Amino acid sequence: MAQLFVSHSSVDNQLAAQVKDVLATLGYESVFLDFDPTGGLVPGQAWRDQLFTNLDACDAVVFLTTPASVASQWCHSELALARWLRKPILALLVDGSDPHPLTADLQGLAVKAGHLDADRVRTALVSLGLDQEARWDPARSPFPGLRAFDESYAAVFFGRDRQIDQLRQLVDPPSRSREGAVVPVLGPSGSGKSSLVRAGLVPALRVSSDWVITDPWTPSDLPLAELSLALAQAAKRHDADLDADRCAALLTTPGGMAEYVRTLRESGVASAQTKVLVVVDQAEELVTITGETERRAFLEALTTSCAEPSPLRVVMTARTDMWDQVAAETGRFEMSVAPTVLHVPPLTRTDLAEVISEPARRSHLSLEDGLVQRLVDDTGSGDALPLLAFTLARLAADAEDGRLTHAEYDAIGGVQGSIASRAAEVASGGRSEQQVAEAILHLVSLTDATAHKRLTRAADVPPRHREILDDLVEARLVVVNEVNDQPVYAPAHESLFSAWPPLVAMIESRRGDLELRARLERRAADWREGGGTQSGLLSGLELDQAAQWRSRNADLATPDVAAYVDASAARRRQGRIVRAGVATVVAALAVSLVVVLLVNSRADRRRADEAQVGELAAIAERELVHDPPAAAAALLRGLELDSGDRALLSLSRTLLRSPARDVYRAPGQETFFQLGVGGPVAAVTTGDDTVVWDIERETLRSFPQSGSQAVRSDGRVYVAADDPDGLSVYDLATEGDQPDRLTVFSANDQSVPVLAFSHDGSLLAEGRRSWVALWDMRDPGAPQRLATWHSPSGDPTALAVLGDGRVLAASNSARLMLWDALGDGSTKTLVADRTDTGVQHLTVEETGEQVLIDYPSFEDVAIADTTTGATVSSFTAADPAAPPASFPPVSWSSSLSTDGRTVATFDLAGRGYVFDVDTGAYLGPLTGGHTSLVSDTYFNDAGLLVTSSVDGTLRVWDPRSAEVELSDSLSDDLCSVFGARVDADSWELAFGSDDLDLPCPAPTYDEPAPLTVSSAADIGSVPEVSTPGTVVLAETFEGGGTPFGTGQRTVSTGQVTTSVKGGRYRIDVAGVGEAYTTWVSAPVAGTGDTWAVTATQARARGECGLYASDGKTQVTATVDRDAGTGTLAWFGTFGGTHDESFTVPAGAGGALSLVDDRGVLAVLLGGRRLATVADADLRPPTAVGLATRGDSAGCDFDDITATTAP
Within 10 A of 462 (CB to CB), how many other CB atoms are there? Predict the structure, then answer.
C-alpha cells in the first residue's frame, strides 16, 4: 500500500489526527503519524532515527501548513529532507495559511480545519501517482518470483515508467483519436511485457473514472467464453446486471459494446466518455492452444466489437517470435489493429538497480553493500529478468532479519543457479531428478524449436506426478489457478525450461514425443469442435504414429487425446471381428467417471452448452448398440462439457457394462471382461464371442457375442442378449461344443437389457429402458411373461429377484425400488438417493431379506433391508487399521455372498477387502489379486468369489481364506483346462480374435528336409515349408520402447555382429556374408552401444519383405484376412516387378513372416505355410525376415531374424 508521512507541528496534533482519519477512509492504511500509539514513534528508541527511517520509506509527505508548522524548525528539517529525497509533497494550506518557503513552488490544496473534503484530497494524491489502490504492506515480500507483477504489486513495480507512458498514449491518446482498437505489446519471453500491462498500465488507467477494465486473462480453449466472463465480472464490480451470456451476445452484435457502456451508465458508474479496456495476455495462445473453430469465433466477435465507434480498447501481449502468426489470424478478419507496436526493451543497468533496490526499500529490506551491483552484473541481458525475479524472491523469503546478504546469494546459486538449485531441492525429497523432470513435461509445449508453457488440468495429470507438481507449487516454480472451476497447473515462467539441466536434457530427449502431443492436441480440439465426425479422425500412417506414441507416453496422453486416438482406431477396426479400438476409448471413459467421483462437488461447469450436451446424449443413446465407438466418443465429449449430466452418466454406465468395452489387448493395455456367474459357470464376454467356462468340469464353450447375460444358479441355463429378435436361452447341460439353443423370447428394442435370475432359477427379471418384465423360467424352453412394470425412476441399471416374486430395481434416480410383481403389483421406493454413476449390481442373500447396493462411491457400501430400505450394515473398501489415505477410498465393485455372511469390496486399484456381515469384522485382504480396476464381482452358490478385471484376468477366490483358488490369468487357465497347448485355431474359435496373443506355447515343428525347387516363380508348389533353416539372430522391438543392441553372439556358424552402416541396420555373419534392412527404414539413432527406435523409423506401411545384401533386391508379402487373399511380389536389380496371388484360409491368424529356407522363400502366417517361391537370383547369403502382428494394412518391423544355411 502507498505509505504516507504526515508532517505537522505538535500544536496541530488534533488536526493531524483528523487528516489521518480522512486518509484511512480513502484506503490509505499505512500512514505515519508520530504521536499515533499504533503506528507512530516507539518508546525507548531514538525518535530522530525513527522519523528518518519512516520518511525515507514513505511514498509521499502530507504537510499541514499552518503558522505553527511554518515556524517550526523540525518541520523545516522534515521538508528539507523530503525535498532532498525527491518525495512527492502534498501541502494542505489550512484556513488560508501561506505556503512554507520549501513548498512555495508546489501546488497546494486549500482546506478548512475540521472540514476536510475527502474527494479533493483523493484527487490531489492521485495526481501525485498515489492512488489508494496502489497500497503496499511492508511486511509483504515485494518480489513475486517467476510470476508476473500484477495490479496488487503496482506500488513496487519500478523501472518501466517510460514504457507505461508510451503505452498509455497508444491506448488513450490525448487527441481522442486512435489508429486502431487493438494495441500489441511485444517482447521476448521474460522481457516483462505482462508485468508492464498488469502492474503498470492497468493501475495507471484505473485512477480515472473514464475506464472500465477487465481482469487481464490468457486465452485457452474457449477464448470467447473467457472474454464474456471477464466483461461480466467487470460489470458486476460496478453493480451492473450483465451476465456472461448477455456479454457474449453483445460481443457478436454491431454496437454491442456501446450497449454495454449504456448499461453501466444506467447503474450510475459510467459516463458518455467511458471506455472499456480488455487485456489479452499472452495472445500467442490463440494459435498454440485454441482450436480453429473457437479461434475464429473469438476473432470475429472481437472484430465486430472493435468496429468504430466502439468504446472498446484491447491490449494484446505476445512473444515477438509469435506475433506474425497472431497478426495473420487477426488480418483474416480485418481487425482494427494499431500500426504502432510497443516493443518492450531490455532494462538498462540503472533500471535493473531500481528494480532491485526500490521494492526492497518499500518493504524495509536492506541489501549488503555491493549486492545490488553484483545482481545487476549477474543478470546481464534482459532475458535473465525472470531469473533475477526468482532470485530476489528467494533472498527476501530467507531474510529473517530483513537483510539480503552475499552469503545467502551464494548459497542459492546466484541469479543463474537459483531456479536450478530450487528444482534440485524438490528432487532431493525422496524423488529422482528424472521423476521431477517427467512431471514437469506435462507443462511443456513444443510447437517450434523452443519450449513454451502449457496449461494442464490437474485432472489430466497422473496422481504421482500431481504430488510432484504440488511440491513445485510450494517451491514457487509452478503455479495452480482455477480455470472454468478446475485446478490448472502452469510453469511460473518458461525460464524454468532452460534453467535446470536435467529438465533441459529431458525435453531434448523427448522432443519428438512433445511435438507430436502438441499436434494431436490441436487435431483433437478441431475434431471436437467439428462435432466429432469421422472425417476429422486420424488414419493411415498418422494413426499408426499416434497409436505408437500413446503406447509409449501413457502419462502424457490427456483424456481428450486418448479419446481422439482411440476413436480413430475404432473407426479403422469396426469392420473387423474384434472391436479392439473402442476398448481404449471406453477405458478413457471409465477414467472420466472416476474423475467425476473425485471432483463431483465442483461439477457445475459454467461453460457447458446444454443444447450440445443433450445432442451428444442423443447420439450416444442412438449408437450404443450399433456403433459403440461413436457412442463412447460422444459420451467423452459430453462429460467434458458437463461432468454432472445424469443422462450422460447413465449412458456411460450402460456402455461400461456392455460388450463394447470387453476385449482389448495391445502394448500397455489389458482386457475387459463382462461377467455372469451361476454355480460353477462363468460367462465371459470377449470380442464378438461369449466364452462360457465351467470351472468344475473344466470345459470351455463359445457362444455369439451378448449384450447382457445371466447364468442360472445351478449353471445349467444361460440367457443372453445375442439375437436380433430377443433373448436366447441355452441348455448348458448339452454335451459338445455347441449347446442347444432352446428358444428366443422377449423382444429386442435395440437397447442393452439388464438380466437377473432368482436364486432358485425359476424367475428371470428383464429390464429395458424404463420398464421391467418378470418371466417364469421353470420351463426354460418356453418362458412365460408374468408381469410388466413401467418404472417411474427411469432406466433400470441393476435388478434382483426375491424368492417370493418381488423385484428389486435400481436406477440413477433411485438407488433401490421394490416391485411386488406377483402380489398386488405395488411399488415403493426403499432408498431414494440419486447416484451419479448408476448402481451396477444388486446382490441379494438367499433368504431375500438383505441386499447389497453396489455402485462406485466415496460412501460406504450399504446392505439394506429389502422390506424397509433401512441400512443394516455398511463397509468401506479399505483396511480399517491402515492410516487414512490422502483422499477417501472409492468402493468400485462389491458383492454379498449368497448366505449373507460375507462382503467383498474392491477399490480403484483392484485391491480386495473381505468383511463379516454379522460382526462387521475385517477378515483381511484378498491377496495375490488384480493389478487394476475390478469390473465385475459375484459370489456363486458354493461361496466362491469370481472377479474380472481390466488387468486381463478372471479370478476365483475362497474369500474366507482370502486366497486365490485359480490365480493365473484367464489365458493360462484355458491352457490348464485343455491340458495341453492351445493352437491358434482353437484360440480363435474360442475368442474370435487374432489381436489377442496366443496364450499357450506354440506347437513344435519337426525340422523339414532340404528342399529343391527349380521353378523360378512357382507359387504354392512346395508342399511344406514352415520354419527357417538356421536362425542365428533374433532381435525384437516394439517401435521405440526397446533399444537395439549391438555386439556379437556366438552361433553354430561363427560370429554374428550387429551394427549401423549407412543409416541402416547391418547384420554380419562371419564367413558367410552380410545383410541390411531396407533403406526406407533407418531404425537407429543416437550414439553409444544402443540406439532407440522411434515411431516413424519403426514402421513402413505395406512392406514386409526380404532384402538381399545390396539392400535393394526385395520380396514383399501382404495379406488381407477379410478378403481371404494375399500377394507375393518381388522387384530389384534383377529386373522388373512381378506379383503373384495366393489364398489365405479362413481363420488363419498370428504373425506374418517371410523367411528364406535355404533359398526357398516362404510366406508364413501364424507358423502356417501360405505360399513359397524359389529363384536362384533371390538367394542371398544372409536374408532378413520382417514379421508383423495382424495388421492387414501394413507391416511392423517387429521381429528381425537373420537366417543362413548351415
Answer: 14
Nearest in space to 440 (alpha carbons), one of 410, 478, 402: 478
Q: In whole angstroms, how far apart are CA 414 and each of 363, 409, 410, 496, 503?
A: 22, 5, 6, 15, 19
Put residue 878 in one of left, alpha, beta given phi > 0 → left and psi -120 to 50 → alpha. Answer: beta
Cα separation of 1112 and 1101, whole Å?
A: 17
d(CA 644, CA 1025): 60
Distance CA 300, CA 1168 (A): 62
pLDDT of residue 997: 40
Q: How far apart are CA 1123 and CA 1116, in angstroms?
A: 18
CA 311/CA 499 separation, integer angstroms: 43
CB-based contacts of 1204: which residues, under 8 Å, 6+ apart? 1029, 1030, 1032, 1053, 1069, 1072, 1073, 1181, 1182
Q: What are the angstrom distances between the C-alpha of 970 and each of 700, 893, 956? A: 11, 20, 10
Name the residue among 820, 816, 822 with its Cα closest to residue 786: 822
| Alpha-carbon span 300 to 509, nearest angstrom | 40
Q: Of how many residues is the chain composed?
A: 1206
Positions in the chain whose pLDDT score sits under 50:
133, 574-608, 625-626, 629, 655-676, 686-688, 698, 886, 962-1113, 1132-1136, 1158, 1175-1206
C-alpha to C-alpha distances, 590 to 157, 583, 618, 983, nearest whole angstrom: 48, 10, 20, 34
Closest among 821, 819, 801, 799 to 809, alpha carbons compared: 799
What Cα–Cα distance (Å) separates residue 1009 from each residue in 768, 1022, 1117, 1157?
A: 62, 12, 24, 10
Element (H, E) at 818: strand 816-820
Q: In what order do the strands lie in the sheet with 709-711?
A: 709-711, 717-723, 726-731, 740-745
Peptide bond into 309 cis (omega under 30): yes
pLDDT, residue 1016, reads: 25
Query: Are 9 and 2 in contact, with CB atoms under 8 Å apart?
Result: no
Q: Side-chain half-sphere of 435: how many Cα atoms within 13 Å?
A: 17
Q: CA 62 to CA 19: how far, in whole Å?
A: 9
The pLDDT value recorded for residue 58 is 79
Cα 1141 to the chain's mean position, in Å? 47
Q: Which of 154, 160, 156 is nearest to 134 (CA)?
A: 154
Model-wide pTM > 0.85: no
**Cα-flanking dihedrals φ and ψ of residue 201, to 5°?**
-65, -50
Residue type, 1137: T
Long-range contacts of 303-309 (CB under 8 A, 24+ apart): 303/330, 303/333, 303/334, 303/335, 303/336, 304/251, 304/252, 304/253, 304/254, 304/256, 305/250, 305/251, 305/256, 305/257, 306/181, 306/182, 306/335, 306/336, 307/254, 307/336, 308/336, 309/258
Cell for 24?
A: 484511512
β-bridge mates for residue 158, sequence order:
none
Q: How far is CA 625 from the centre of its chain?
A: 28
Map residue 677 onto helix, strand or coil: strand
* Contacts (Cβ under 8 Å, ≥6 apart) of 377: none
923 burial (CB, 10 Å; 0-12 / 13-18 / 19+) is: middle
Q: How far apart are CA 440 and CA 433, in angstroms?
A: 11
Cα distances (angstroms) measured from residue 52 to each of 8, 47, 55, 80: 15, 9, 5, 12
* Burial bucket for residue 218 (CB in 10 Å: 0-12, 13-18, 19+): buried
CA dist 176 and 210 (Å) reads 12
Q: Which of 458, 465, 462, 454 is nearest to 490 (CA)?
A: 454
C-alpha distances in angstroms, 671 versus 893, 933, 1067?
A: 17, 11, 37
Which is it for strands 312-319 and 182-187: parallel, antiparallel or unpaired? parallel
User: What distance, in Å, lies between the first and last C-alpha atoms of the chain?
Assistant: 89
